[in-house]
Amino acid sequence: YGDAIAVVPNLVEAGDAFLMAEIGRNQAEVRRFRGLIIIVGAASLLLSLLGLLVAHYCFLRPLSALQDAIKRFEGGDFTARVELTSHGEMMSLIAAFNSMAQSVERNSSQLRGILDNSPTVIFVKDLEGRYLFVNRRCEALFHQAHGAMEGKTDFDVLPRETAEKFRAADKEVQRRGEPMTLEEAIPQDDGLHHYLTVKFPLRDSSGAAYGVCGIAADVTEKKRAESDIRLLSTGIEQSTESVAITDAEGVILYVNPSYERVTGYPRAEALGRKPSILKSGRHDGSFYAQMWGTLARGEVWVGDVVNRRKNGTEYVEHGSISPIRDAAGATTNYIAVKRDISNERALEEQLRQSQKMDAVGRLAGGVAHDFNNILTAILGYCSLLRDQVTSAAARADLDEIKASGERAAALTQQLLAFSRKQALSPKVLDLNAIVADTERMLKRVLGENVALSCLLSPELGRVKADKSQLEQVILNLAVNGRDAMPGGGNLTIETADRELDEEYCQAHAEARPGRHAMLSVKDTGTGMDARTLARIFEPFFTTKDPGRGTGLGLSMVYGIVRQSGGHIAVLSEPGRGACFQVYLPIVTEAPETEIESPAPAQTGAGEVVLLVEDEVPLRRLVARLLSSAGYAVLEAGDAESALALFQERGSEVRLLMTDVLLAKNNGRWLAEKLREFKPALRVLYTSGYTDEVIANHGVRAQGVSFLPKPFAAKNLFSAVHAALDA
Questions:
Q1: Is 582 exposed, middle or buried (0-12, 13-18, 19+ CB in 10 A)?
Q2: Could you tell me the pTM of the whole model?
């Protein structure tokens, strides 16, 4: 231990020495390592700087460029790209972004192209009504440059009234929170345009609304086309022409209400069938072959066709059938437009009948006029001879001649009645009173096997007509009814007020609208067919056996009614009797009271009469009769001779007695000429029938002295005396 203790200082010194040696050695190491550390640190620093530089160029810079591109992309710039290159994951990330951006840009470009090329107006507004997006159609609508509308409102591009309506609609969409369809009107250069607009709210991912999107289509032309179609459809539906449309095979696809009314087939029954349902059998196969041949050539068929209604009655149609072609020119349908001309055909037939009756009437009137001149001479000379002969046998023969002449004169009066050339003396009459007065006579005429009944309207208006002629009408119609009931039957005479309207007058050419008194004579006899009805008023037409009638009774009725301003209609069918309806215009004047005047004297006192008559035998007879009655007679055969004679002896002439119809100028002209020289000259007209020169449609004017032919001597003397006293 002591040794050990003794060794300790040595050990300490050794340890110190060793330590110092070690420290020196360590310091050298330290100095060596310090340099190494400095070198390593510098190298590390250099490596770090190099790493940072590499990181900046390879990671941070591309990352920053990517962030910038993303921001631009989020701002709506779909053209944003990262142009820098990198390595590893960063390069993949950049490539993925660029690919996505390119895809989005392509899709966006396509979408923009679709929106800009859309014929509809498309826009997006924010909640304040500012435009966020509009397509080119919208910009063109408001005359705005590309991109100029963004941020603007409707108040910046539209009239205030229109803008307020648009803004109200946007708010309503926001309030409802659901799509709305509405029609909006926008003023444009060529007028007001109508747009059908669908507006709906736009929401973000959280569901909050951030705007309104609208899609609007210009429906102006569509509305106009729809209006035209509506107008066309309404016109066809309301047309009085019947319209039917078929397919190419002739199957009916459409009919309008007029078709239903005319044919009697309801639309439901007509659809799906062919027009042949209307065939009447009046046309042969060649008629329809020609029709379809015309249509097969693509031409329009026009013509008349007799068809049969659903109830079996026939009617006449005039119309056209036209092919309807598609864009390729192929016939797909046919359209038939037709008009029921049955009434027109009936009116045409009535007009032809009226013209025929008028022509026959003119002929009958002319014959009667000439015949009356002859009869006047025959009857006049008969009277003269009878006063000169003493033989009873001769007088009896003359009486027979006179009776035959008078029967012939009655026959000419019937002809004149038919031709409406007889002289009438119209007065305001109570038709009921005339029927009542005639009833007693009719009961004797009709016989016991005919039951007569009169149904008289107490409210019947007054008429203006010739009483005797009206009585003749009633008598002739009653006798005609009796003859139609050889085994007996019922005859009903009825009066009533009737208002003839335009529709009735269109169906009856001779009728005139207004209030009329109707006289109806109805029998229960054999009736008449259509062919007989068409001729019943013709003179000398009769269905009776030879020797049982002249065929002038109904002709006379027709003439009297027409001359009195009236109209006559006949309703009859075989086996169902006949009904004659006479319509006379109602007048407001009170009935006239007939006053019998005393019979005038039959002789004259030397008054000078200027007699003008172109029929020599008749002129001689009248001159002889007047001379025998105490008158002085100056004779002339025409108006010119009478005028020359009057210029010589006009101061002596008291009365001009002239025929109405003379060879050159008529009697009215002569009277007016002579009154220029002598205004107080009295005038007496004579004629076989009245003419417009002294009458209005054969009705004698008030104050005109007229002596109808043929006349007896006493009638001549009475007329002359009355004319002188007028």
A1: buried
A2: 0.43
